[in-house]
User: Which sequence fits this backbone?
């Protein structure tokens, strides 16, 4: 990949000490340990044609860690879903199951709202 394609938002800088931020450096907030992650689990039906989805938000860490957690939750619940805008979307009402999975994985501060 070309070096200029990795740059995020900066086209040119006159500052000789400026270092371009690259995609690998992107972290959702400041990374904190699993047991201190304040994850919130809730059910959402808005703008989804009446279909329910379980949302998990509040994750702080890298995009790869978030994708891995989303993949784990979808696989263990046996349903589809996605990870968008720092939020994990699991199809269907699986709040209790997602909470139990997160607690087993060490996310002690996960709560259902």
Assistant:
């Amino acid at each position: 990949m070309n070096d200029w394609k990795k740059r995020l938002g900066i086209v040119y800088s006159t500052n000789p000490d400026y270092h371009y931020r690259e995609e690998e450096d992107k972290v959702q907030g400041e990374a904190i340990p699993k047991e201190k992650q304040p994850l919130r689990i809730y059910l959402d039906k808005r703008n989804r044609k009446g279909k329910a989805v379980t949302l998990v938000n509040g994750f702080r860490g890298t995009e790869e860690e978030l994708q891995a957690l989303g993949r784990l939750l979808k696989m263990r619940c046996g349903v589809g879903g996605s990870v968008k805008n720092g939020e994990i979307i699991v199809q269907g009402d699986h709040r209790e199951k997602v909470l139990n999975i997160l607690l087993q994985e060490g996310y002690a501060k996960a709560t259902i709202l």
